[in-house]
Amino acid sequence: MRKLALTFLAGFLLLLPTSSGAQSPEIPVALRDEYGIRLNAIDAPQPAYPEEAKKAGAHGLVIAAVHFDVRGDCVGVEVLASPHPAITESVTSAIRRWRLKPLVMNWGAPARVQGELRWRYVIDDGVYRVELLPKAEQKRHSQQYKRMEKSFRRSWESQEIKN
């Protein structure tokens, strides 16, 4: 649950306007779980297993908070958990090249997308590979994410009412 909370915190930081003003606060943000992001990916290059990480015997789970603009281009990546700095760089580099189908909200407004992605770096009998989490595990994380999203939205709406 702590990692999920960190994901949301990183996501909020990604929502802050840049100095150029590229992120408009009027454009809605759609929170999407990993399964939903992967389903809407047009171009999704997978990260490599860097030689430096192989030599170090690094393996484990990587969790990244991601943000896409209204065109579906990745505009923000924050790696929340990683077993090695070279793996962090590999994941960041791959995600920055991702493209999603542009999202349109129910009322026709374009939306930015925020969520998280995970990979598992595995060493199995001297064979190095990068795996997606099984769909069942992605969906389990998605259920947790949706509960956090509902909580976030209730909190956000109550703040809007006060203002």
Structure description:
- The chain has 163 residues and is an alpha+beta fold.
- Helices cover 40% and strands 29% of the residues.
- Strands 1, 3, 4, 6, 7 and 8 form a six-stranded mixed sheet that branches.
- It is elongated.
- The relative contact order is 0.21.
Highlighted features:
163 residues, alpha+beta, 6-stranded mixed β-sheet, two-stranded antiparallel ribbon, 29% strand
Concise structural overview:
The chain has 163 residues and is α+β, with helices and mostly antiparallel strands. The protein is built from five helices and eight strands; from the N terminus they run H-E-H-E-H-E-E-H-E-E-E-E-H.
Describe the sheet with the most strands: 6 strands, mixed
The average pLDDT is 80
What share of residues are in beta strands? 25-35%
Percent in helix: 25-40%
Helix/strand-derived class?
A: alpha+beta
Number of helices: 5
Count of individual beta strands: 8
Order of helices and strands: HEHEHEEHEEEEH
Which regions have little confidence, pLDDT < 50, spanning 5+ residues?
Answer: 4-24
**What is the terminal separation in angstroms?**
30 Å
Categorize the overall geometry. Answer: elongated
Radius of gyration: 17 Å
